[in-house]
Design brief:
By secondary structure, this protein is mostly helical. The chain has 11 helices and no strands. It is globular, with a radius of gyration of 21 Å.
Length: about 270
């Protein structure tokens, strides 16, 4: 009887310790993942701020076109250091978005469709292997973007997917791509929620404005896909063990995410 009581007490205390420490440990792991991969999203947003500065200067002189806007974006990213990285993230030359991304952005009314987020995600998964392979994760992103009522709630729910990716995907190119893509979606939502109307007012002053509701989620999906592509590009450009490999991957992910973001925003505002 005594032994049984001791065993019961031990099990009770173990369960109590687990229930008390479990959420804290989960939150600690989330904080680590958020900090590790948040640099990509932060650099993406800083790049958008710099590109906006140059686009605004161009608009003060002449009418802006989509093609001119993307040219300015490439020039900015190839010559202006990103503050948090203290480094230039662009290649210093104009490189077009992938043809399937350009075609998607040019699709009439794509951003006005009732299920725009799902339509865009399906189109991207047909062309990007990592997204197609992990479609379940991206379907969850779409569900969060469609169901949560405000941006802060969306971000909180999206950040929980760091834990899902960490648990379900083995380390390497795919995991890095998914994490960098998620970080970019999260930070993109935050950026465009605050600055969408500012871009519209500056780039097309006096014209009828498009509501930000629903739009910023679609842009975030495209941004995230750009970051996935940039991550893959960084892996291809470097070799395992190569000095500065992680730095190169981070920069290409932020660069491609930013270019995709500007391309999507200009498509909505100008086309």
């Amino acid at each position: 009887m005594k032994k049984g009581w001791i065993l019961f007490t031990a099990l009770f205390l173990t369960g109590l310790w687990t229930s008390c420490s479990g959420p804290d440990e989960t939150q600690s792991q989330l904080d680590i993942l958020r900090e590790t991969y948040g640099r990509v999203g932060l650099a993406h947003n800083e790049a958008l701020m710099l590109v906006y500065r140059d686009l605004a200067a161009e608009c003060a002189e002449t009418r802006l076109t989509w093609e001119k806007g993307m040219e300015i974006t490439d020039r900015c990213l190839g010559s202006t250091p990103i503050p948090s990285l203290n480094a230039i993230i662009g290649p210093g030359k104009a490189e077009a978005l992938p043809p399937y991304v350009t075609a998607l952005l040019a699709t009439p009314g794509i951003f006005a469709k009732p299920a725009a987020n799902a339509v865009i995600m399906d189109a991207l998964s047909d062309s990007i292997g990592i997204i197609k392979k992990h479609k379940g994760i991206y379907d969850r992103i779409v569900n969060i973007l469609d169901s949560e009522p405000d941006t802060e709630a969306k971000i909180r729910e999206l950040e929980q997917l760091y834990l899902v990716i960490d648990a379900e995907v083995e380390s390497g190119e795919e995991k890095a791509g998914l994490m960098n893509g998620l970080s970019t979606v999260v930070h993109s939502l935050d950026y465009w929620d605050e600055h969408w109307h500012e871009w519209q007012e500056t780039l097309t002053p006096g014209m009828q404005k498009t509501a930000a509701v629903g739009i910023i989620g679609a842009i975030g999906i495209i941004d995230g896909a750009g970051a996935v592509l940039g991550t893959v590009e960084g892996f291809l450009e470097t070799q395992p063990g190569e000095d500065g490999r992680g730095w190169t991957i981070l920069k290409t992910a932020a660069m491609e995410g930013c270019k995709a973001s500007v391309g999507a925003a200009l498509s909505i505002i100008l086309l």
